[in-house]
Amino acid sequence: MKSSVALQNALVLTCIVSHSLCYGFKFTQTYAPSLVPARHQSCATQKQGKGGINNFMIPRAGKFSKLERLNASPGLDEGRSDALQVDWSAIGLYIGATSVQIGLISLFLKVADFVMEQYISNKLAKKGIVIAFFAFMSLKSRVFSPFLDNSRPSLKSEKSNRQKRKTPSWTPPPIAFPFIWLTIACLRATSSTMVWEAKNCTLLNAPVLSFMLHLSIGDTWNCINNVERRMGASVSAVILVWLSVINAVRMYWGVSKTAGLVLLPSAIWISIATVLITSIWNLNGKEPLFPVKKSIEIKQ
Predict the structure, then answer these.
(1) What pLDDT, on a 0 to 100 scale, did the predictor assign at position 47?
(2) Which DSSP string corresponds to 51-83?
């Protein structure tokens, strides 16, 4: 019953992705974005050309004396301005990929529970397997996401990307991120194992599913932010990542206060990351808060 409730909660949080991105579309249309990205493609189909996948143009200050083009399609007249379009196919892909990922993880947890109950009687051996599993998932949960490229940036690419955009003065150095994530992974594995023990040594339970949903949403965010480089949509998505980790901490706390406290630093770090991502977006022209299907022309 609790697993069923957790799956319902997972569906609700997944649906929030669509609502959040749609809200970002309305918000950005109202407040006139000052930075519009070049044509974006989804992670599944994106290819890099000579100029790279991130071609941005920031309009010059003051009035435009002539038509400014942002990677405009061939054949457009100078008197024409294309409407800003939401990339609904990308939004559908994000929602679908996240749903498939949490579904595959749930199936794996059910099978793992069956196998350990039937074939592994030593509780210490079970605990060792569970700790290793949670540690692996904390770092490589994207193996359950078959439709998106959720890879995290390397140290070299992170340094390169930082040179291409403005960042707050308090941004941690790139070398700090691997150490932060390794520490977070250890805390995640420890807290999740505590929950596993408190839930009669079963993996498929509501608190663990809430944590797996958090990982799945985080993997989708990695695609949006680190692969597709959609700064605006990344802001919308990182808020969902933050909400999901808050929910996971709440669920863990309900089972074991110690487990909730151990997972809490993960929520604190993601809160900081949310502020950082939003600040970077704000410093770089406030790109639309939704995926853009095609580039536009700006005329004044």
Answers:
(1) 41
(2) T-S--EEPPPSS--SS-EESSPPTT--TT--PP
- Indicate the range of 51-65, 79-93, 278-292 predicted with least confidence: 51-65
> What are 292's two structure tokens?
């853009």
Most distant CA pair in the chain: distance in Å?
77
Instruction: Give kind and range of the element (H or E) at residue 7.
Output: helix 2-30
Reported in sequence order, the residue ranges of 93-174 that DSSP labels E, i.e. its strands, are: none
Asked if residue 134 lies in contact with residue 197, where contact means CB atoms within 8 angstroms, the answer is: no
Amino acid at 55: N
Phi–psi pair at 60, nearest 5 degrees: -70, 155
Indicate the helix (H) or strand (E) that contains 99. Answer: helix 88-119
Domain count across the chain:
1
Burial of 243 (C-beta count, 10 Å sphere; 0-12/13-18/19+) = middle
278, 271 Cβ separation under 8 angstroms:
no
Instruction: State residue 182's pLDDT score.
Output: 96
Give the list of residues 6+ apart from residue 290 with CB closer than 8 angstroms, or none.
21, 22, 24, 25, 28, 86, 87, 91, 232, 233, 236
Domain boundaries, position 238: 2-298
Nearest Cα residue to 290 out of 86, 109, 3, 57: 86
Q: Look up the CATH number of the domain holding residue 50.
A: 1.20.1260.100
Residue 70 contacts by C-beta under 8 Å, 6 or more apart in sequence?
A: 36, 37, 38, 57, 295, 296, 297, 298
The model's pTM is 0.72
